[in-house]
Structures are given as structure tokens and as C-alpha cells.
Design goal:
about 270 residues, Rossmann fold, six-stranded mixed beta sheet, four-stranded antiparallel beta sheet, binds adenosine-5'-diphosphate, binds magnesium ion
Length: about 270
């Protein structure tokens, strides 16, 4: 990642003082978060803290009670519905329950965004769909139906579909739910591989913190309704901030220590 570009350009997504309650329950208490262009930010935090609610704000699906949600420098709550729709066409979304249509083939599932949003010829659609499936190591699966695929393959079809309109920003909300460690890592490997080629920015919500998380540019911890810190993975792991330390200890303990060991820091930390 080019650091000069990172610091010079305006963030592609920016949240300021975002507060959100549902009934009596205040979920977000003043969330500040920037996603610099071309980078990947992982939002972590315990279940029920409001990670998905943050993503829904970024997608313009939920309005903040207070605070500002900006995408491409535009206040999402002030743009016209038509503009919001336009902005959304630049998003690729992959949620926990990959909603593939069971009655449609893999090909038709992946082709759907192109058929709905573009006027490309069938020939052009075919070329693009097969290209994205190849990118996902899914060559030859186009005539299959979702029920014939493994969980990992279904997620990859979901990823291919999310990438279909060449999005500027990809949103992943716990995309590896239900996959074992190997399959999860494989999905993330494909994700980071395609990101290098397609250069999108990404927001990933993850409760499990896979080893691959080190490939992200930033890790943001949501706890008690605020972002406790948004740091590089290295800074995050070594942070002295109490909430981050507690999270690292509880959730990432094994990974953390195996890492330090590799770097010869283990004894230093123990003493
Ligand atoms: N539309 C909604 N209506 C009422 N409560 C909601 C709604 N969306 C989220 N919540 C509540 O907000 C809290 C945070 O939810 P969520 O963002 O899904 O957590 P996370 O993704 O961190 O696990 C939960 O207690 C959830 O029940
Ligand atoms: Mg969630």
C-alpha cells in the first residue's frame, strides 16, 4: 500500500460521532471511523456490540440518531435517493448468509447484478461471469446449482457476485461464518488476491480473527459503543489501550503469542 496516497487522500468512508439506539438500547455511542481509499479495515468486537449496525450505516440502510456518515465525501443522509442508489452500485456486499438463489445456476446467480444494472449483451455477460468465476478458482462450476456446492464454494460464488460490478468498496459481514479454519483462510486468500488485482477498498466485519487478518491495513475494535482504536495489525497486537489489550488477550491469545515467539519477543513480554 502506498503510504503517501493513504495519508493524502480523503477517506472513502468516514463516520463521525455516530450514535444509534434501538428502543431503550443505545448501541453506538459516538463512533468515529475512517476508511482510507484502497485499504482494508477489519472491524472486530464481541457479538452484539453493533458491528453490523456500523456496516448498515455505511450502506445507508440505517440512519444515525446523531452524527455523520460520509461516503466519497457525501453525507449519506442528505443525498437524494437516486444518488444513494448510484453510490450503492459502487458497493459489493457479502453478508453472513450468502443469499444465492437456489433455483438459479451459479452462472445466473453471478450474472444477476449485470443483468439488473447494466445493458451488456449476453455474450459480454458470459465473458465477465466466467472471468470472475475463474478468479475464484471456480472454473467449470457455472452450470451447477447452489445445492450442489460445498459451503466454501457457495461463499466463493457470493464473492464473485459481489465483485461483478467492479465495486469501489467491498463490505464483508462475517463472510466466513460456518466455514472451518482452512476454508475461511482460503476465502480470505482469494479476497486479498483479487483485491490486489481489482484495487477495491474493503470493510470486513469479523468476530473470529483469522490468521490472515494480518494482511489488513487497519483493525478497529468496537466495544461499549465506540471505536476503541483503529490501528495497523502490528500496532493493534501491541497496543496498551486496555480494551484492545483485553480483546487481544481473549480472542487472539494463541495467535499473538505464536507471533511474538516467531519474532523472539515472547520472553520480553512474559517478564
Ligand atoms: N433493526 C434493529 N432493531 C432492533 N435492534 C437491533 C436492530 N439491529 C441491531 N439491533 C441490536 O443492536 C445490537 C447490535 O447488533 P449487531 O450490529 O448485529 O451486533 P454485531 O454485528 O456486533 O454482532 C444487538 O443488540 C441487536 O439486537
Ligand atoms: Mg453482526
Amino acid at each position: 500500500m502506498n503510504d503517501a496516497r493513504k495519508s493524502s487522500s480523503e477517506p472513502i468512508i468516514s463516520l463521525r460521532g455516530v450514535e444509534k439506539s434501538f428502543g431503550q438500547q443505545q448501541v453506538l455511542r459516538g463512533v468515529d471511523l475512517d476508511v482510507p481509499e484502497g485499504t482494508t479495515t477489519i472491524i472486530v468486537g464481541a457479538s452484539g456490540q453493533g458491528k453490523s449496525v456500523i456496516v448498515k450505516h455505511m450502506l445507508g440502510l440505517v440512519k444515525p440518531d446523531r452524527g455523520l456518515v460520509k461516503v466519497y465525501g457525501e453525507d449519506l443522509n442528505r443525498v437524494k435517493p437516486r444518488r444513494l442508489k448510484e453510490i450503492r452500485t459502487t458497493f459489493g456486499v457479502l453478508f453472513q448468509n450468502v443469499a444465492l438463489f437456489d433455483s438459479m445456476t451459479v452462472f445466473d446467480n453471478v450474472a444477476l447484478p449485470l443483468r439488473e444494472r447494466t445493458r451488456l449483451s449476453e455474450q459480454e455477460i458470459r465473458a465477465r461471469v466466467l472471468e470472475k468465476l475463474a478468479l475464484m478458482d471456480m472454473d467449470g462450476a457455472d452450470e451447477k446449482f447452489p445445492a450442489q456446492l460445498s459451503g466454501g464454494m457457495r461463499k466463493r460464488v457470493g464473492l464473485a457476485r459481489a465483485l461483478m460490478l467492479d465495486p469501489k468498496v467491498i463490505f464483508f459481514d462475517e463472510p466466513t461464518t460456518g466455514l472451518d479454519v482452512n476454508k475461511s483462510n482460503e476465502l480470505y486468500r482469494l479476497f486479498f488476491h483479487t483485491q490486489q488485482q481489482l484495487k477495491y477498498s474493503a470493510v470486513i466485519v469479523s468476530h473470529d480473527v483469522p490468521k490472515i487478518f494480518k494482511l489488513a491495513d487497519y483493525v478497529a475494535l468496537l466495544a461499549d459503543g465506540i471505536i476503541q482504536g483503529c490501528l495497523s495489525p502490528e500496532e493493534f497486537q501491541l497496543s496498551e489501550q486496555p480494551e484492545i489489550r483485553a480483546f487481544v488477550r481473549e480472542t487472539m491469545g494463541a495467535l499473538y503469542y505464536s507471533d511474538l515467539e516467531e519474532r523472539g519477543l515472547y520472553e520480553e513480554v512474559q517478564s
